[in-house]
Amino acid sequence: MTRIEHIVIVGGGTSGWLAAAYLARNLGSDQPDGPRITLIESSEIETVGVGEATVPPVRTVIASLGLDEAEFMRATSATFKLGIRFDQWLGREAGGRPDSYYHVFGEAGRFGQQLQELMAPYWVIARDSIGKSFVDFSMIEGRICDAGRGPKKTDGFQFGGPMQYAYHFDAGLLVGLLKKVGCASGVEHLVGTVKNVRLAEDGSIAALDTEEHGELTADLYLDCTGFGAYIIEKAMGVGFDSLSDKIFCDRAIACQIPFTDPGQAIPPFTIATAQENGWIWDIPLSDRRGAGYVYSSRYTDDARAEEVLAGYLGEQASNVKMRRLKMRTGLRRQQWFKNCVSIGLSAGFLEPLESTGIHILDVSLRYLVDYFPPTEKMSLAAKQFNDAMNDSYVDIIDFIKLHYALSRRTDTDFWIDNQRDETLTDTLRDKLESWRYRVPGLLEFSANANIFGLAGHLQVLYGMDYLPDLADQEHRFRRWPEARQRSLELDSLARGGLAALPDHRALVDTAYSTGFRKAPARGS
Questions:
Q1: If you ran DSSP here, which 8-state letter would residue 214 be given?
Q2: Which of 282, 284, 280 is nearest to 264 (CA)?
């Protein structure tokens, strides 16, 4: 069989350079028999460094690039992330309870069965008498977040620790680091413009014509040209399915807010605050905050959006530059077509509510490496890749929409329409109907690259007061003493964590100054 010898990536940015670095490292491009990788990007396109939030699998990606964790953090102004705090999503009809809840990463794999069979049903049945949120009853991470602690000790190992975590970082700075890794791993970097895509009779790419470098040919092409999708859509005609009837937000106003105090406390979580026609992200980096208002152009305009963000920022709004961003919500069902794979924004985009942008990019690159074929098996690999990516999108779409569907806000049509049955996917509608009378099960979330799982769904469902009616099922739940004892054990673990874990700012400072230890090799 004939192996793929040359890959051309069109477009830089986070998608292009992460693809280049990841493929070079994982396909052996620095070895004699590895595929050659060329990346061509325009000098005119700027990466927006608004502050990016991620999910835990990103640690594996960064480690796979051969980077030291501290090196990565210093280069990208990164901080640690334990989860997201959602403010004002439920609405004023919150039954007197605080309209705020956490979605923390936790340890769903280790404690999933315990959450399903023990903690969740007993919290639902006895919530009023327990007097704790679901997160505080069944996990410790919420209390670690409240106290502003980091996820591991200052003398801990890199890329690991007692708690699941991800990062906040500057996406613009990340591109520079990825470019350095990619070029060191054998990637050929060209600055130039693709002016024409020549297609073969079967619809595949025959060659790219560039203004500066003439003709480029390859066995496989990656379209990393962003929302424009200039290769796979404009040239090859592969369609894009809009999700604007389900996921309404299609605009953002973003800005950077410098810290006035270099030693300012850094929350170890993202804050997502609901607003009249969308929500505001607040992401803490080491030297500044990245903030932005994500909203729907169907329900408001840019000028009003800037007013909303300025109101959130208060006095700091007068000293920041606001940048307007347009987003295209949806996905391409054929992300791999013929000899072209769309990666990143050219393949699809879902609003950044649960920090899935880098994750979807990561998943697509992992699948590309897993299915990487000889040229004769390109069509089979494309089918497997597309099936896997479509399945991954279904889970993420439903999870994002879940936050809106469960809201009780009625202050604007944006929130009212988000709750309408016809704006839900069929799969989410069925899930919600089923979860009216039962606790979700662990096996429901075990397929594909689903990152949110049982723990994530329970936190959003119960944080938004969407509880099952278990009144006629209490005979099934006879382990209340065990559930109470486990919660007491978690209280003790939380106290121990608060005593042992450092302040988040102190942990970040340690990462920047001395770094962390390398984990011992397995078997040593």
A1: E
A2: 284
Q: Which among 125, 140, 109, 73 has a CA at the least distance from the CA of 507?
A: 73
What is the reported pLDDT for 109? 45
Number of other residues whose CB lies within 10 A of the CB of residue 93: 12
* Burial grade of 189 (CB within 10 A; 0-12, 13-18, 19 or more): middle
Distance of CA 500 to the CA centre of its chain: 29
Active site positions, annotated: 81
Taking the domains of the chain in order of start, what are their residue ranges? 6-51+170-244+329-394, 251-326
Which two tokens mark 171?
């996406």
| Token couple for 208 | 């790219």
Instruction: Retrieve residue 467's tokens.
Output: 């509880």
Residue 79, SS3 per DSSP:
strand
Residues 490, 138 contacting (CB under 8 angstroms): yes
Question: What residue spans of 225-301 are helical by DSSP H?
Answer: none
Residue 44 pLDDT? 75
- Decide if pLDDT at 96 tops 60: no
* Of the options 3.40.190.10, 2.60.40.10, 3.50.50.60, 3.40.50.300, the CATH number for the domain spanning 6-51+170-244+329-394: 3.50.50.60
Give percent above pLDDT 90 in the chain.
83
Tokens 């079967």 -> residue = 202
- 329 and 295 Cβ atoms separated by less than 8 Å: no
512 burial level (CB within 10 Å; 0-12, 13-18, 19+) = middle
Name the strand (E) or helix (H) holding 96: none
Predicted confidence band of residue 222 (pLDDT cuts 50, 70, 90): very high
Whose tokens are 């329409």? That residue is 417
- Tell me how far apart the alpha carbons of residues 354 and 344 are, in angstroms, rounded to a whole number: 16
Query: CA-to-CA distance for 204 and 226, rounded, in angstroms?
Result: 20
Distance of CA 100 to the CA centre of its chain: 21
**Cα distance between residue 146 and residue 457, in whole Å:** 21
- Residue 161: name the closest of 283, 71, 234, 69 by CA: 69
Give backbone dihedrals phi and psi of 17, rounded to 5 degrees, phi first: -80, -30
78 close to 288: Cβ distance less than 8 angstroms: no
Dihedral angle computed from the Cα positions of residues 272, 275, 279 and 285, in that order, rounded to the nearest 10 degrees:
-50
| Token reading at 479 | 């382990």
Give tens-digit pLDDT for 353-372.
999 999 999 999 999 999 99
The DSSP result for 324-345, as a single string, is EEE---EE-S-SEETTEEE-GG
Q: What is the pTM of this model?
A: 0.95
C-alpha pair distances (Å), 510 with each of 73, 145, 161, 235, 262:
11, 19, 15, 49, 14
Q: 3-state SS string over 136-175?
A: HHHCCHHHHHHCCECCCCCCCECCCCCCCCEEEECHHHHH
Residue 282, judged by CB atoms within 10 A of its CB (0-12, 13-18, 19+), counts as buried
